[in-house]
C-alpha cells in the first residue's frame, strides 16, 4: 500500500491534472483579512465564497512545483489512495484512474480495517470513517466503485522537521488546504479533508526521560516525546525506569500524546490527580504557520504555550515534540460491573439502577476514583469497565464502591462484578481497559456534567440519558474531576475551559450513520445529535461544557461550549500566529468564517 504502485504513478497523475487545468475567470486575488492571493470564487446556496485551491482549479500547483516539493522532502510526497483501494479493480481519483486490485493486499486491509494500530500505520486513514464519506471501504466485489471521498489528495511522510517546514510553506504559498495527521485517532474528521495535502508526523518516535528537567516553570522528572509517540509507547518507556514512572494519557493506549490530545486538553485515568495532559506540559517545540521552528514555554512565546495547552487541535502550530511532567507509579486496584438483559429484564428497574450508579459520581471522584462506563448500545446494558483506584488497595477501593453495591442489592437488580489488584497503575492500564475498534462510521457528540448539576438536577440528567438512548444513540462516560487535586493556582495556566474544573462526568454520545448515507439521512442524523441527543444533555446539565476532541463541532455556541471565557484570548493568539489561515480544524478558534461547502468538500471563506 505504501510504495510500489503509489510511488510509480505519482508523477504521472500530477501531470494529468495539470494538463486539464487552465486559468479561468474563477480567480480571486484578494480576500479582506487574509494575505494569500490565490483563491477560487464559488457560489453555494446563494452565498459567495473564496476557496482554497483544490485539484482542477486554476491555482492548483503545476507539475514542476510538486516535483520541487518532492525533492525537498526527500522523495516522501505521495498520491493518496484510500485504504480499501486494493479490493477494487480501479481507483477513480481526482488526479486520474489507477488499476489497484491486489488480492493479498485486499485480504490484509480487510482483516486489519477494524484494528486501530493497522489504520494508524496507514498514511492518511481516519480511524472512524464517517468524515471520509466511506466511498472505498474494503469489499469482496472488485467491480464496485472506489473513489477518494473526503480523504486527502496527497501526503508527505515527514521524516525530519525540515520536511514539515517544507509542507507548511508549500501549502501556505499555494493556498492549499493543509491537514496534520499523526495517528488519525479523531472523531471529528480533522485527520482527513477533501482536496487537502497531509503532513504525516507519525515517524517522530523519539522518547527521552530525565529526573531533573530544569526549565521555565518546572524543575523535576520529565519525559520528552516526539510528535508520533503513542500512549502505550510512552508508558512502556516510563515503566522501564527504576523506579517506574507514569504520565497523564487518555484511556486509549493507541492515541498519540503529542498532538491533538494535548491541544484539546487530554483527559484520562490520572486526571483526578494531575489534571489534564495539558496541565502537565512544560515545553513545546513547534513549527508555526510561517514555517519557523519555535520553542514555547512559560517564558518563551508564553501566549502560544498557553494556547497549545487545550486551545484547540491544528489551530496554532504543528507540534514536533513536547515535554511533560512525570509521576511516581503506585499499586492500584480496579473493579468491573455489568448490568445487562441476562441479569435484569425489567427496563424500569434497569433505569433505576443507572440512576443509583450515576448518583455516586461526585462520591467516586471525591475519593479519587476514575470510572469508565457505557450506557447502551445494547438495550438495558450498563457496562462499567473499569472503576479505577490509583494508589489504593483493593480493600480501600471496595470500601468506596460498596454503598453502590448495597443500593443495587436493595433494588433487587442483578449484576456481575469482578475485581483485581495490580503492582502498578501501568499494569492495571494494560489489563483492565478494553481494546477499542476502528473502521466504524458514526457522528460523535458529547457534553459534561458539572458537580452542581448532579446535586441539583440529577433526575433530569437520567431523563436525558433515556432521551439519548431512545434517539438511537448511546453513551460512553468518564467520571473524573480535573480540579480534584490539581491546585487552583494551576487552573488558569492552560487554555482549557474553566468550567471543566467542576466537572464530575464527561460523556461521549454516538449516533451510528454510514459515511456514504444519502445527504438527507446525514442531515437527519446531525440534527438528531445536535438538537435531541446532546440538546437533552445540555438542558439537564447547564453547568457543563463540551470537550473539543469528543464532541459535536456543529453544536450551537461552540466557542463558549469548548472554551468559555478563554475564547477571546485564544482568538487573538490565533490571529497572531496564523494570520493567513494556513491551519484548519473544524470549530477551532478563528474558523467562524470558514465553511466546507458543496456537500462538505471545498474549504472556503464566506464573503
From TrEMBL:
InterPro entries: BBE (IPR012951), FAD-bd_PCMH (IPR016166), FAD-bd_PCMH-like_sf (IPR036318), FAD-bd_PCMH_sub2 (IPR016169), FAD-linked_Oxidoreductases_BP (IPR050432), Oxid_FAD_bind_N (IPR006094). Pfam families: BBE (PF08031), FAD_binding_4 (PF01565). GO terms for molecular function: FAD binding; oxidoreductase activity. PROSITE patterns: FAD_PCMH. The keyword Transmembrane helix does not apply. Residues 1-19 form the signal peptide. Belongs to the oxygen-dependent FAD-linked oxidoreductase family. This is FAD-binding PCMH-type domain-containing protein. It comes from Triangularia setosa.
